[in-house]
Design a protein that fits this description.
The protein has 184 residues and is an alpha/beta fold. It has one domain (42-179): HAD superfamily/HAD-like (Rossmann fold, 3-Layer(aba) Sandwich). Helices cover 30% and strands 15% of the residues. The chain is built from five helices and six strands. It has a six-stranded parallel beta sheet, sandwiched between helices. β2 (47-53), α2 (64-80) and β3 form a beta-alpha-beta unit. It is globular, with a radius of gyration of 15 Å. The mean pLDDT is 96. It binds magnesium ion and zinc ion.
Length: 184
């Protein structure tokens, strides 16, 4: 495949600080220190895509309109740092959900690779040259199944083993930019 490389980012706990089922824009607070490495990656021609499980939709904890408002906020906070996202892809499903049409087993809930594959098709990404960055084993699993390299941030157990571990998202992004040939 000769698409663009991407960094696919988990949202909660990776791009933003961890919260339990955030449901309003104010709860999405960007992790510190990520503006410079994200700008650096864009300058290297790397696409930036968010891939996020949002089972709160299936559980009826918030609505698609709430999620849209949260993602407009997220884009605007990033824009303030000079960072444009190429896309945000979410899985609204959960088998134990209370919203009938979303209470299904799907292929897009991480560790399934569905969100990454959909992003790759829409945005012409080369997944073999891309990285999945997340704070859960399910992020590493999704990245591996999609054929990406994987980075795990924070203290989660490293099974399945990621290609890279870092204490913070900012550090992971710096190391990935270095792997793409930028200054770490
Ligand atoms: Mg997370
Ligand atoms: Zn899904």
């Amino acid at each position: 495949m000769n698409g663009r490389p991407a960094v696919l980012l988990d949202r909660d706990g990776t791009l933003t600080e961890p919260r339990h089922y955030p449901s309003s824009p104010a709860e999405l607070v960007l992790q510190p220190g990520i503006g410079a490495p994200l700008r650096g990656l864009r300058e290297l021609g790397v696409a930036l895509v968010v891939v996020t499980n949002q089972s709160g939709l299936a559980r009826g904890l918030f609505t698609p309109q709430d999620l849209d408002a949260m993602h407009r906020h997220l884009r605007s906070r990033l824009r303030a740092l000079g960072v444009r996202l190429d896309g945000i892809y979410h899985c609204p499903h959960h088998p134990d959900g209370t919203v009938p049409e979303l209470a299904v087993r799907c292929r897009c809930r991480k560790p399934g690779p569905g969100l990454l594959l959909r992003a790759a098709e829409d945005l012409h990404l080369d997944l073999a040259r891309s990285w999945m960055v997340g704070d859960f084993a399910s992020d590493v699993g999704a990245g591996r199944r999609a054929g990406c390299r994987t980075a795990l941030v924070g203290p989660a157990p490293d099974s399945p083993a990621p290609d890279l571990r870092a204490p913070t998202t900012a550090r992971a992004l710096e190391l990935i930019a270095g792997a793409f040939g930028g200054t770490p």
